[in-house]
Each structure stands twice: as structure tokens, then as C-alpha cells.
Specification:
Elements: E1 5-11, H1 15-26, E2 34-39, H2 46-53, E3 62-66, H3 73-82, E4 88-92, E5 96-98, H4 103-113, E6 117-126, E7 130-131, E8 140-141, E9 149-153, H5 154-160, H6 172-182, E10 186-197, H7 206-224, H8 230-248, H9 253-259, H10 261-270, H11 277-289, E11 294-295, H12 307-311
Parallel strand pairs: 1-2, 1-4, 2-3, 6-10
Antiparallel strand pairs: 4-9, 5-10, 6-9, 7-11, 8-10
Helix pairs in contact: 7-8, 7-9, 7-10
Length: about 325
């Protein structure tokens, strides 16, 4: 039986990037049966663009929902999951897309061939030359996927539950994959399925990202770590993130995390449902041994869309001809 795919794209104030992401997704050899765009309270004209260039009369597989205010990436992804119906749920960011036209089809084929796999993690290549997995490697079990490029089996995710909305903007992938592994499922990385992440600077604040990385790692440990390992893991997570903050800054992040400790404890205990010690140790081993990211010094950033292609409207729907292809690692 062929699995159907729903795609969810959460977006906030990235109208030009979203246009490219949608156009490339619809150009897949086997596109999703539905694409739900969750606009998380944008104020940059995203609403007007979606209602004109991607109106239902022109793009019947696309649905657009605008939230009244910015509730955070994770809340938007939860909304998308419960408001779609496909057997699988694809997540790409509003600034990411498959490099090859059959990328999604290959992800679906892997889930069809391996019913024990709950999620496939695509290989991610960023504009600064970072590649998450060695290209050409065989599929392997991974500890987590990356939010900007993965495919989920709906039935498995429905059984373990939605993301913790209190995580707000990041770290949700690790928590969900730990729960999936705890429930006996596999998360598999597909190094040959490339997703290009343009990593738009809009909405990215390094200080905020490091705060939420630190905070959310602690919440996850409280919520999922077995009691026998919790004191050690909580302390190790705090020290590890503190060291990163000292090395990369901003150094006041630790003070913010310390001030947030009461809410960290409250949220973690609210969601506490620890996995088995065996599953937790398995997850830790995968995190230790999974293929590391590698910087590709010869990678060149992809060309940005020309002003003309950004301004073009209706003809973009369903056609990738006017969207530039990202440069692959090693290409000039």
C-alpha cells in the first residue's frame, strides 16, 4: 500500500523564502497530497502572498492558516499535525527544500519497506557548507531527526504524543525521538536524501537559541530520563551547555537558565513519563556514535533568487523552473 503524505510548513515573516520552499515542494516527482502552511502571526505580507499566489483555485493541495499571534514554532507544528490526514507527515522549514526531485519519494519508499521505522531523517546541507551526514553512507539508526527535513509515520507519532508546546522553538526533535525509541520504533537517517537549508537570518538570535537549547535539554531530562540516571544526566546536561555558552557566548545565558529553573522543573515534571533505562541508554549510544556533521570547505552558497523571481507571483505555483537550484557541496 502506498503511504500518503501531508506536509506541514510553519512560517513566520519569511514570505520570499516560503515562496521558494512551496514551489520546490510541489515540484517533487511525488508531491504531498496536501500542504498545510501555518503562518505563525507574520506581519511581512505572507498572508497576501499566500491568498493570491497560492490561492486554492490555483493550488488546490495547499491550505493556508494564519494564527492570530506568534505562538512559537512547536505549537505551529503541533497544529499542523492534528489538522492533516496523510499516513505520513513531512516537515520542512519555510527556508528548506529537497535538493533532488525524488527526495520525498525515497523517504516514503523507506517507510513503506520498513514498518518498524517511525521517522526518517534527511541529510541536511546548509548554506555555510555544513553537511549533517557523510554523503553516500548507507541508512543508519539515528538518535533524532532535524526539524527542517524529516518524514514521520503518523500512527507512531500519534501513539507517543505531540511535541511539548512549552519548548516553544527548538529541542522538540530529541524529545520526540527519545519517546519513539522508548516505544520500540526506529529513527533512521537517509544520508543520500538531501535537504538544503538556506538558514534565513530572519528570526534567528544566537543568544535566544542557546538559551532554549540549554533550557529545553534540562526539561527533556526531567521529563524522560529514568530516575536512576536523572541526577547524573541533569548535571551533565547543565555543565555541557554551560561550557558551550562560555565558549561561544553570550555568557549571561546561564544566569537566564538559572532564573528559569522553577519553570524548567515545573514543565519537566508536568510531562514526566520516563522511558526505560534500556531505551535511554540506547538513545545515548546513538547520540554518541551517529555520523557527525562535517564542514565542506569547497561548498558554495546557492544563488539567491533574483528580484524578478521574488516578485513573480501566480506562475510559480507548481513550477520549479524559476527557482534556482542550490549548489551542492563541491560545486562551484
Amino acid at each position: 500500500m502506498t503511504l500518503t503524505v501531508s506536509a506541514v510548513i510553519a512560517s513566520y515573516n519569511r514570505a520570499p523564502e516560503l515562496r521558494i520552499a512551496l514551489t520546490r515542494l510541489m515540484a517533487q516527482t511525488t508531491p504531498p497530497v496536501e500542504i498545510l502552511v501555518v503562518d505563525d502571526g507574520s506581519s511581512d505580507g505572507t498572508d497576501a502572498m499566500m491568498r493570491t499566489e497560492f490561492a486554492p483555485s490555483r493550488c488546490p493541495t495547499i491550505r493556508y492558516v494564519r494564527q492570530p499571534h506568534n505562538g512559537g514554532l512547536i505549537l505551529a507544528r503541533n497544529f499542523g499535525f492534528v489538522n492533516t490526514t496523510g499516513d505520513c507527515v513531512l516537515s520542512v522549514d519555510d527556508d528548506s527544500w529537497f535538493v533532488e526531485p525524488d527526495g520525498l519519494a525515497r523517504c516514503v519508499a523507506h517507510l513503506e519497506a520498513h514498518p518498524e521505522v517511525a521517522a526518517v531523517a534527511c541529510n541536511i546541507e546548509t548554506r555555510d557548507g555544513l553537511v549533517y551526514f557523510p554523503k553516500g553512507a548507507a541508512p543508519f539508526d539515528a538518535p533524532w531527526y532535524v526539524g527542517c527535513g524529516h518524514l514521520l509515520r503518523r500512527s507512531a507519532v500519534a501513539a507517543v504524543g505531540l511535541y511539548m508546546p512549552e519548548l516553544y522553538r527548538q529541542g522538540e526533535e530529541k524529545d520526540r525521538c527519545l519517546r519513539l525509541i522508548g516505544a520500540g520504533h526506529r529513527v533512521v537517517a537517509l544520508p543520500d536524501v538531501m535537504v538544503y537549508h538556506d538558514k534565513s537570518e530572519k528570526g534567528r538570535k544566537p543568544g535566544m537559541e542557546r538559551f532554549y537549547n540549554h533550557r529545553n535539554d534540562l526539561i527533556r531530562e526531567i521529563a524522560r530520563c529514568p530516575a536512576a540516571l536523572l541526577p547524573q544526566r541533569f548535571l551533565r546536561s547543565w555543565i555541557g551547555n554551560s561550557w558551550k555558552n562560555l565558549r561561544h557566548g553570550p555568557r549571561w545565558t546561564d544566569l537566564k537558565v538559572l532564573a528559569a529553573l522553577p519553570s524548567i522543573l515545573r514543565i519537566g515534571l508536568k510531562h514526566r513519563a520516563p522511558v526505560s533505562e534500556e531505551a535511554y541508554r540506547r538513545w545515548l549510544e546513538l547520540a554518541r556514535t551517529a555520523a557527525p556533521a562535517s564542514a565542506v570547505s569547497t561548498a558554495m552558497p546557492p544563488p539567491h533568487p533574483s528580484p524578478a523571481s521574488r516578485e513573480r507571483g501566480p506562475e510559480l505555483c507548481g513550477s520549479a523552473a524559476s527557482v534556482p537550484s542550490p549548489a551542492k557541496a563541491g560545486e562551484g
